[in-house]
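quick one before i forget lol
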Amino acid sequence: MEDLYPVAVVTDSATGLPESVLAEYGIEVVPYWVQVGAQSFVDGVEITPEEFFKLARAQAEPAVGTGVPSVEAFLEAYQRVATRARAVVSIHLAGAQSATCSIAELAAESSPVPVTVIDTGTTAMAEGFVVLEAARAAKAGRSLAEVVARARAMVPKVELIALLETVGFAIRGGRLAGAARLLGGFLNIQPIVRVASNKVGLVGQVRRRKSGLNQLIERVKAQAGNSPVRLAVHFSEVEAEGRELLEQLETALNCVEAYLTRVPVPLGVHAGPGSIGVAYYVEAGFAGSEGLDLRGSLSRLQEQAKELLDGVHLPNLKGE
């Protein structure tokens, strides 16, 4: 028992974390089931994101879905990591959008080691950055309480924003159903969505893809400012487009860590072919979407204060 790590990290296949990162930190992944038409696949085992988007693109109408991993799948994962760790931190996508956290908690009741389940309130690499922070702490030999605290502190900082090519997959998948149906009557509308704090929201819509990509960049810039930022660009089909977006973000921001990876299949089921997104978190001074209005108000107050000071004439203290 002395050779065991204090903590191991388990997650699901929605993170989009690169295989090299999973291997480096010993992160255990429980895969989702993916359905395309009449066919079912195990995500990451029987189908890759590239293969999924090819099949999805070939369909006349969206006919895709995901299945949450079973209690048995989670329990098997906990049993595997119990051979190398005394406890488990199991980190997953938004609980309000999926039963994943609930299933993980059921499996935890039968786990041979203690399991703490954490709901990230988001998905893709926004979820992945929470996992990565916990995994780095676990590899450093931190206690269960420390790893859990690190992960939970990350949850309110991470955000995913994405540009969708069409609203069709979002409508069918139930995400953004109300907002997406309002847009459904408009031709060539491409929605911009945000996933954070266990909510999926429509934050914009464009007709031209270039405008949408620019809005993704400007949104991240507005929140990051000059603070260090860690980010990942997810592309569904065109790697060159994803790489260009990543390069633009790296040029515009104080970027200290960056990844380029495909849209994970569990997100792709709802985002559809042509989707592209940015997952990120700001290390310091994070305002969050709710803080943007406050930031603008503070900026206006600063300008007003400067105007007042400019109009003040101080006496000549030297008596000249």
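fyi The chain has a mean pLDDT of 87.
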